[in-house]
Amino acid sequence: MIFYIIFFIAVCAVLLLVTVMQKEAYPFSYYPMYSSMHKLNEIGVYRIAFKKPDGSMTWWISEFYRYPEYVGRKLKQLHAIDSGWAEKDVLLRLEQTRLLILVLRIAKEEGVPVGNYTTLCIVERKMTKDLKPEDEVIETIPLDNLRDGFS
Asked: Which domain of life is it from (predicted)?
């Protein structure tokens, strides 16, 4: 029992010391994610959509809820790489194809009728100043190109 009393007094003393001295000590500091302002139009999330032959799009809502975000960011990084070498371009294209085939496999396992769609779209969604979503298609990939390695 005495241990708990001493522990409680020590925690209170540290809290009081940090407050009075206005120091930023680790557990009592600002969390870095919230410590600076972010402009709303600079924050974007990536989504994946499947497009039918008639042009209608269906958003993919994965059970791995952050996976479309991961794929979108990875593809944007791959497109930002300027290699200049034919060998490196082949490797970048191979990595992109590997990612997209994995997306198709996961979507099919989750019950998405992949055969009904003709195109896969990677979309970056940002908010405008009047709080309306604005979508920018980063890449449109015909599914026929991916189905060869998918089956």
From this structure: Bacteria
Evaluate whether 146 touches 120 at the Cβ level (below 8 Å): yes
The mean pLDDT of 120-144, rounded to a whole number, is: 85
* Contacting residues for 15 by C-beta, under 8 A, at least 6 apart: 28
Q: Can you give the residue ranges of every domain in the chain? A: 2-34, 41-150
Strand partners, 119: 51, 142
The closest of 23, 57, 51 to 144, measured between CA atoms, is 51
Question: What is the per-residue burial (b if ≥16 Cβ within 10 Å, else e) of 17-38?
Answer: ebeeeeeeeeeeeeeeeeeeee
- The predicted-structure confidence for 85-110, as pLDDT tens digits, reads as follows 777 778 888 888 888 888 888 888 88
- b/e for 85-109, b at 16 or more Cβ within 10 A? eeeeeeebeeebbebbbebbebbee
Q: What DSSP state is assigned to residue 73? A: H
